[in-house]
Structures
1.
Amino acid sequence: MSAIADLSAAELEALRNEVRGKYEAFRARGLKLDMTRGKPAPEQLDLSNGMLALPGNADHFTESGEDARNYGGLQGLAEARALFLPVLGAPPDRIVVGNNSSLALMHDCIVWALLKGVPGSPRPWAKEQEIAFICPSPGYDRHFAICEEYGVRMLPAPMTGQGPDMDVVEALASDPAVKGMWCVPKYSNPTGEIYSDQTVRRLASMRAGAPDFRLFWDNAYAVHHLTERRHEILNILEECERAGNPDRAFVFASTSKITLAGAGVAFFASSAANVRWLLARAGKRTIGPDKLNQLRHVRFLRDEAGLYRHMDAHRALIAPKFAAVAEALDRHLARTGVARWTRPDGGYFISVDAAQGTAKRVVELAKEAGLALTPAGATWPHGQDPHDSTLRLAPTFPSLEEVRAASEGIALCILLAAIDKQCA
Ligand code: PLP
């Protein structure tokens, strides 16, 4: 197919009729498909069924002889911290293991920063006239929802394919009102991009106007590869230390998309000062985390090799789904000039840039055809995509057959919306 912008009026009209016919045929199938849920499929959760019987009846003592059934152990088991050390890039004494949900840890860090400040804060963030966060966009909607909830102004920064545009980020960070920045440095949600070494170094070393500026380094997809290549990124904690900003990064991760999404363990890693700060706050909130779940994870995954074996099994289940989406988009949209889409080497999403001003229409067309897509704009601060172009596709949860059918429908909706706009 040739670029629709090059077609004559008659050719465009003919193509419109053809694509509308295909769309109507798709709609007539009366399917019910959902590509909105960035969560593991049941078969992925089944990979961890062995955990349900762990740590087992009489297995509740930790390596140091602690009884994991009891209160205490605020920082998390030493063996759990050691197991995830390669993922977090910090020595065990600078890792904290929490309960399920790293998002909860991020939320708590923001709330505690607002109420108490962080190491280096002249005053609690809530006592400042106004505070702002840099939000690489498109990004993770739940990060933006936390900012919205607590009145943190959001400053979008465009993505480049190698992380956020650092010229924009550096200019924004020089403002003392800017207290932090969201980063998903590997297989970013939703663009799948990986921060380059240069991006990581610039983030670690840039001048920040606020003395207590923090990178919220959400490494949610650290080991979630979709190809045999296990991409690595620079260690942000080491880079910050080297640049003379040792307290700059709060690192987060979890096993939500490794073991069980609703019953994983979450991690925080940072400088000694930040870890002391977090533990001082956390110690008021709880007498200790669920250490049996930590023990369960250690018994199940065992070591780094066990972790990678387990992630390979996830990859075998979900890589074909990502390939099915790419195949349908290629077949219907290649060379039409109406869309660009990502081919991520990891993570949970494919991001599509549809023709400007058509994303909302694509989502409407999809809905009319029984296909649920993430609302247009959801990946932008306040749900507002200035170009009305980004679509986030989440292929992990539906079955491969459903992903194939949905991708066909999505491609047709993207094409039809673009042709309709061109004709208007
Ligand atoms: N961070 C990112 C970038 C995510 O995409 C997600 C889930 O989709 C989360 C965090 C949620 O993590 P958790 O389950 O550990 O709260």
2.
Amino acid sequence: MSNYAKSIIAGDREHVLHPTTNLFEHRENGALVIERGQGIHVYDVQGKEYIEGMAGLWCTSFGFSESELVDAAVEQMRKLPFYHGFGNKAVVPTIELARRLKSMVPFEASKVFFTNSGSEANDTQLKMIWYYNNAVGRPEKKKIIARWGGYHGVTIATACLTGLPAFRGGFDQPLDNILHVSCPHYYRDAEEGESEEEYADRLAEELEQLILREDPDTIAAFIAEPVMAGGGVIPPPRTYFEKIQKILRQYDIITIADEVVCGFGRTGNMFGCETVGMQPDTMTVAKQLSSAYMPIAAVIIPEWMYEGLVEASADRGIFGHGITYGGHPVPAAVALRNLELFEERDMMSRIRDVSPHFQERLRAFADHPMVGNVRGVGLIGAVELVASKEKRLPFEASAGIGQFCDNRCIEHGLIHRFSGNAALFCPPLIITAEEIDEMFKRFGLALDETYKWARETGRF
Ligand code: PMP
């Protein structure tokens, strides 16, 4: 390793506290430091090339070297590097971006509120719904239903929504008005012989029982990712949202679509809710909104909610919610250019052309002796490894299967991610069929080595 690489890695170890990282391991082994990107590839400080099979954090739709987005940022920075929307101010790119977003979403949208991150946007969803329900005179209607396995962020409120142990354990969960229903994981949780439709019936029944137990007049909203991403790429069973939403409507409960990962083409439609038959009242978007070249997220709300907020503000003076960088002109200009490029390059057709190949290559892993389930839609998917195919038996976390396989992938020049025992794939949307082949070739090598090691060490 060069002295340059050594000193950078040592510096990271000495000075940086890493997000969502095993801190013990980081202290022992240091980090993989990425220095530059090109197309779907990134390069570490030693110059080694990797395919970025996760588009970073499910976000760099245009890969790592889209100069149009860089130009949009530079141009806006020269013109106006910062201004805000507090106290009746506005900036031009934010207005244009809001207009464009409204025209894209598959529901009647009225206003767009900008934040920097998906967590802040989902936090805003809760605050707006609480504020709205106070405004319309039903202050007791405040509880929010989320799902085990869902990921909605890490702020205090959104970490309470997030139903994944790693993001909850060790941190307090102070909000007692957040409830959870089951993760809709057909492969893992369906009973012997139960069809997807029957499984969806059972989940809808569970939801209704919870609502009745808690009292429908105390429940404000239900939040869901159309396809669960961080929890293991879990598309819902057939008819799930149709049945869930029938109940939500019956009890006057708002549906929030968390489109932070699924939004902007990922599942083969512009929004994930179109793929899974979900009809949201409000929506959260982030990540691919700007291809992640600049931090920006948004909450998109309908007219009736906006009217409630306006009325409350007439009483209270101001709508007291906002973030210094929310609607920042530079990320807004980048996001706007990103959405224009999406259209100019006909990305939806491109995604629809290439995703059957992605899904076919992904599903080819189903024959592997250690693979229990393969699932996905569009350009997102997962390969779930099991200790026994027949019994659908998961590996114990202590077996270290994911960690071993991950390390082998790194060795072969592939960055992706494990969630539990599921290997996740969510490449940049610009990926070509040849690059998909290469990505899965590298994963296949790592998987075979993991299988060999697991057998040799008695893990399989
Ligand atoms: N919702 C979903 C579905 C996500 O996957 C994420 C982040 N991965 C978030 C919300 C939170 O976004 P952020 O990390 O920008 O706060």
3.
Amino acid sequence: MKYYITTPIFYPNSSPHIGTAYTTVAADALARYHRLLGDQVHFLTGTDENAQKIVRTAEANQTDPKIYVDGVVERFKDLWRALDISNDDFIRTTEERHQKVVQRIFTKLYEQGDIYKSEYSGWYCTPCETFWMENKLVEGKCPNPDCGREVELLKEESYFFRLSKYQDALLSFIKDHPEFIQPISRRNEMIRFIESGLEDLCVSRTTFQWGIKVPFDPKHVVYVWLDALINYISALGYPDGENYKRYWPADVHIMGKDIVRFHAIIWPIILMALDIPLPKVIYGHGWYLAKDGGKISKSRGNVQDSFALIQRYGSDAIRYFLLREMQVGTDGTYSEDNVVERLNSDLANDFGNFISRSLAMIVKYREGMIPCPGQDGELELELKALSAEVKKAVDKRLGACDPAGALEEIWRFVARCNKYVDETAPWALAKQEDQRERLNTVLYTFAECIRIMAILTAPFMPGLPAKICTLLGKDEKLIQWEEADRWGILESGVKVQKGEPLFPRIDISKLLME
Ligand code: ME8
């Protein structure tokens, strides 16, 4: 099966931060999971460069917009590398491959009468790159609850896109496809919004020149949202590219809740007007908030250097934190204390400790050789049943774009494995000559539990499989998703190593003194 997943394309008006990173890490976990399932995956991310705010920021930095974005785009690519993001493509909207598709689509929509020329008179919020009618403003400012900033009065000749014409078609599509907008709270929000009536959308600007020119009227540049959304097909080589034929429609567009409106309304209507199939799922997740409850964003000045964080805790730990902490349909709180707490409890204590403890026992009692197991007892049967249950639940959660839920399930298995160590007490078995076979069974089961943990966590923490496979004396072929609920895969006689702890405990008080 094919699986096409995208993140939003980010504005390179400032460097990415840990909040921005959430979406990309979540998309990466889903892409990696689908690769493990054997799907043909295409994972796209990129940057949205033709915005007015880019011009403003470049001016403030006394530089040319293109020079400015070229610099920031490198920071995005660096961060994605540091976080082990496995995207197959990275699109920049200043690239020719994108610009020519936007121009082609704009012309087609104009020629078929879905875009028409008129005059825009109203308000514009540059931080949100959004047009607002006067009656929507809140005390004369941007009505977006996360923004509330000054808006500017615009009165200019503009092209408009007939959103209103497609309102009923969109509403019936959404009602007929309950899975289209997820989670359900976002879907309800969108239905209410559309039912309140769609106005035609202003889709060109004349007061600045940075952007994609309307080919038949070059004093206009294409409105940044119309331009940006098209990236999802321009990157595939629409209309004739092989990738377009292979991967469209997208299986999931994942994004923050702030921009679901654009993806659930403008984007499907563009596609309907072009007679192109609609994406299967638009998934809007919550935000990472700082401890004071405000959204993490550059303009609020609460952004920490993501590279320093990754260096301090490691990419896997940061990825784990981001994916685990934000529950479906809600916001998550980010703070460094929370990162350390999760790292110490979930990764060092529960996960890492099971692996070190159990490998140490195989080394101590069997000189590092995975022994040949005897008959399963009740405890082993229980673990086996649990692994099947957990794998099924993880498949379900990931199918619903819920990495936090999937990790919660996996940690049920991790907790059970830790309990199994205490219940079987291998140190006591080792003292009894007649328990030799029982000890072999327990130690073998430990090794199998480690193998299963390595498979289940592979989509989330891609640095782990290689490390764990080395500890188990195997190569990465051991990581086979369909074997996460099969037992008896490891051969006895293979030599394991105790190795260094995968996640050393962090002492926060020492860290603060550094
Ligand atoms: O909106 N918590 O770009 P943008 C979680 N260019 N996610 C966050 C976040 C936070 N604190 N801060 C940012 C744009 N994000 C447009 C998109 S797509 C055709 C065009 C993530 O740079 C989240 O995914 O403002 C949010 O939707 C996105 O960054 C906004 O990125």
4.
Amino acid sequence: MQELTHWIDGAHVKGTSGRFADVFNPATGEVQARVPLASTAELDAAVASAAKAQPKWGATNPQRRARVLMEFVRLLNRDMDKLAEALSREHGKTIPDAKGDVQRGLEVVEFCIGAPQMLKGDFTDSAGPGIDMYSMRQPLGVAAGITPFNFPAMIPMWKLAPAIACGNAFILKPSERDPSVPLMLAELLKEAGLPDGILQVVNGDKEAVDAILDNPTVAAIGFVGSTPIAEYIYGRGCTNGKRVQCFGGAKNHMIIMPDADMDQAADALVGAGYGAAGERCMAISVAVPVGDGTADKLIEKLVPRIEKLKIAPYTGGNDVDYGPLVTAEAKRRVLGLVESGVEQGAKLVVDGRNFNLQGYEDGFFVGPHLFDHVTPDMEIYRQEIFGPVLCTVRAQTYEEALKLAMDHEYGNGTAIFTRDGDTARDFANRVNVGMIGINVPIPVPLAYHTFGGWKKSGFGDLNQHGPDAFRFYTRTKTVTSRWPSGLKEGGEFHFRAMD
Ligand code: NAD
């Protein structure tokens, strides 16, 4: 069995804690590798050597740092197929989806190539008599990122690219469920010219995370994962005086107005609800048709589309719609929530509970589920399911639909499908959610905008990627300067001919 490593000072390093976690092939249920789980001492050593390497990198001009990222982009494109394959093998998502995972990370690296521009400070000439004022954006030193399993390429890149572009050293603690791609990213960055020690990949679980939270050298932490862990990391990290931003779970509502194109809405819902087996923080997990007539029409359009979905391993051809969940535990949890929905009185219109894939009986596949007549008190509505389960909550009016999205504790993304600009505009203005789609089901902002949810989906200030990332990974210093007159008046500057 393959034994994975950490990546320290530009090389693969074996774990020394003696603790490991299994990495599964979710399609077969087999353990395909084991990943070392770092001890506090291993994490502290990685931070110490990152801190040693950082001053030189921080003093390297931003254009040279950007060139490393430029080359990194080239290498990501060169190795796209290899990265996608490794990603699918551990995560279970389809190859096109895995390529999207790499691509959406790569685009943030591209944005970070603009570091020389993004890091320019402000300047005021003659803020007072003979006084100039200017600001500088300086690196924090050592920053850390703790990332989830569901985007093992994209989210590490959303963190490490801006942190490194700003001149920091970075400690990445990826998900222990799919750690291979983050290690491959580190190899590519070395090949691109990143000095050793500037990116350390420390694999691990709670012990490594707690060591990051308590290490006094770590100045900032970016976290993405479930909300209970986000709250924990935010609380402990802030108490320890660090700059912390944490992005948590979601329950994204899509409102379907009676005037929406029902075919478009149904197509959008199937992709956004079941793509990647629902394991996306921007998945639509709640459909809110407005009016019973709209609901009936929508369900009628959804059922045949859902029944046609092809669920198979990533090796099953180009027409696979989604693959297995990441672990057996995730499968148990999702099926348990489906049972609770049935027990609490929701109507299970498409029942995927008995889904079985011949030849892959031990894989973590879950069939698609569609619930109708879900109410806000049910567990399937309150909790993030993170599986191929779409809940329909019927609303009688637009205001009722808006209130549902607003009253839910999560506020990551939401969408409205309508042909009326006034309704769409009102929705975008009033809803208390961070990312809004208008006739777009998964409104993930591009690299040069920023990504972040509200309410229990985001803790701390500033979003991920875009200009916010350059603010998060730097500190502002403002200089007020006056140069008393002297030489200018008294000095002799002319090049005189000898008398
Ligand atoms: P998770 O919270 O289980 O794990 C995230 C990270 O935290 C991992 O690196 C893990 O090792 C670490 N961790 C887990 N338990 C810990 C503990 N007790 N103490 C300290 N660290 C711990 O999340 P996941 O299952 O990997 O990812 C899925 C979740 O991430 C979903 O809730 C999803 O909505 C969310 N997510 C959010 C966004 C966003 O931008 N808002 C993006 C992607 C995923």
